[in-house]
Design brief:
CATH superfamily of the largest domain: FAD/NAD(P)-binding domain
Largest sheet: 5 strands, parallel
CATH topology of the largest domain: FAD/NAD(P)-binding domain
Radius of gyration: 21 Å
Oligomer: single chain
Distance between the termini: 27 Å
Helix content: 25-40%
Strand order of the largest sheet: 5-2-1-9-20
Strand content: 25-35%
Shape: globular
């Protein structure tokens, strides 16, 4: 019986489990993560404005794992041995015949004063603190921004920042408080979020202008103080700073012997095969994919597409066949502004963006489908975790 280990319980990890079980019905699959909990990041942006709660974002995957006869190992991965054939954790070692890495990435902590910002993408508790900060203000300036990695600029999470910025604007208007606040957006580039495509960036920037949100673009960041965003062009006063730093590769991978990109991401090809490590695959944020389009994101839908390719290639590798199936390059995201949505779609041939309140309904439908697929209707906070 083949032993397959999957590191991580995000979109990529869970999709990989489904595909591996489909392709290799008798495989012994083990999932390694601190908790059996998928965080539904697309709904994270609703927490600061009260549209969702931290528990809404957490999906307990124990029922899903049980239905697919998957063992769960509650542990923190610390490294690899034997070129990936052994996963080292704080609870011991796990041997495998094939490995899928879907552990996600880390956040880059190089800018001074990051402790004075609210890092939205750090999870539901961090998002809840933004809501607390908003509730504590009766007037002032709220600044929103994001950054990439200096060695890998594409390693950024811009979409969630656009969403929470537009959602905060909508919520303040609903509360009749918008006139008491100045909302500002800052970014080192003159074209933030460019991998979404020119049309999408223009639509988002036009929406900011329509809502009287001032943008500071092309100003490299220098750091933060409790009441300032420091840029090369000067200071931006702010009573609350929402900032998502760039991503870097997973810390546990640094001393494993895996091939790493300048930003610490695990080097792989478009088949998700880790270079020079047969039987080891990577999907999602943790990877750097040679030959992939420079606009391709690593999160959400893209991670699922990579996971499908990785799952099929695991089956081929275990059967002694060439494991060279590639993933589809496609970007799909919905920027939720509470009162409307912007659907962004991009492939090698097409880059489009459409605005409509209907896209918000589509986003909620996708969340419901994900919850049915992985959570069986049970939220992660609904019961004790063994």
């Amino acid at each position: 019986m083949a032993r397959v280990t999957v590191i991580g319980v995000g979109f990529g990890g869970m999709k990989a489990v489904r595909e591996i079980r489909r392709q290799v019905p008798d495989a012994q699959i083990t999932v390694v993560a601190p908790r059996p909990e998928l965080l539904y990041y697309p709904s994270l942006v609703g927490i600061p404005v009260g549209a969702t709660t931290p528990d809404d974002v957490r999906i307990d995957v124990r029922d899903f794992l049980a239905r697919h006869d998957v063992d769960f190992a509650p542990a923190v991965v610390t490294g690899l041995d034997e070129a990936g054939r052994r996963v080292l954790t704080d609870q011991g070692e796990i041997a495998n015949d094939a490995l899928v890495i879907a552990s996600g990435a880390g956040s880059l902590a190089r800018l001074p004063g990051l402790e004075h910002t609210h890092p939205l993408c750090e999870g539901p508790d961090a998002a809840a603190r933004i809501r607390e900060g908003l509730a504590a203000l009766d007037h002032g300036t709220i600044a929103f921004g994001f950054a990439g990695h200096p060695d890998e600029p594409a390693a950024a999470r811009g979409g969630p920042v656009f969403e929470v910025l537009l959602s905060v604007d909508t919520q303040l208007r609903r509360e009749g408080r918008r006139s008491q606040f100045e909302l500002v957006f800052f970014h080192a580039s003159t074209e933030p979020g460019s991998r979404l495509g020119e049309r999408a960036v223009r639509r988002v920037m036009d929406e900011m202008g329509r809502r009287d949100i001032h943008a500071h673009l092309g100003e490299p960041l220098r750091g933060f103080t409790p009441e300032r965003v420091l840029t090369a062009a000067g200071e931006i006063p702010a009573d609350l700073i929402v900032f998502v730093p760039g991503m870097e590769g997973p810390a546990w991978a640094r001393d494993t012997g895996l091939p790493l990109s300048p930003g610490g991401f695990i080097r792989a090809d478009r088949s998700c095969r880790v270079l020079g490590h047969p039987g080891v695959f990577v999907v999602g944020d943790a990877g750097a994919y040679a030959g992939a389009a420079d606009w391709l994101p690593k999160q959400g839908h893209a991670a699922e597409l990579q996971a499908v390719a990785a799952g099929r290639n695991v089956a081929s590798y275990l059967a002694g066949r060439p494991a060279n199936g590639t993933f589809r390059e496609e970007l799909v995201c919905i920027i939720d502004a509470l009162d409307t949505g912007i659907l962004v779609y991009r492939t090698a041939r097409v880059a489009r963006a459409w605005s409509s309140p209907a896209w918000r309904l589509a986003k909620h439908a996708l969340e419901a489908r994900t919850r049915r697929a992985y959570g069986a209707g049970r939220r992660a906070g609904a019961g004790p975790v063994d």
